[in-house]
Amino acid sequence: MQNDWAVAPNPSMMMSVDKMVSVAIKGILKDKNELKPILIGVIKTASRIAPNFLLKFGHREFKKIKAQKQNNN
């Protein structure tokens, strides 16, 4: 990625490098095939319980991002 973000990422939501490495090493030591943030599991479960709600939410968020990108140009 070359800083081509539609919307700048929120630094408070980013994981520090030290924490990311720590999580990765712990996962490797536990023989995990895949390291996923907790939110991914929540989204996966929500998509099974209420798929239409999740689709509407995603569509609304993408509209916001598109509007912000157009306003910045």
Provide the fold topology.
Layout: H1 17-29, H2 38-49, H3 51-72
Helix pairs in contact: 2-3
Give a concise summary.
The protein has 73 residues and is an all-alpha fold. Helix content is 64%, strand content 0%.
Structure in words:
With 73 residues, the chain is mainly α. It is built from 3 helices and no strands. Helix 2 (38-49) packs across helix 3. It is flat and about 45 Å long. The protein starts with 16 loop residues before the first helix and ends with a helix. The model has no long low-confidence stretch (mean pLDDT 80).
Radius of gyration: 16 Å
State the assembly state of the protein chains. single chain
- Beta-strand portion reads under 5%
Give the SSE string: HHH
In which range does the helix fraction lie?
Answer: 55-70%
So how many helices? 3
Question: Which descriptor suits the 3D outline?
Answer: flat
Largest sheet: none
Tell me, rounded to a whole number, the average pLDDT: 80
Class per helix and strand makeup: mainly alpha
Number of strands: 0
Low-confidence stretches: none
Give the termini distance in whole angstroms.
Answer: 20 Å
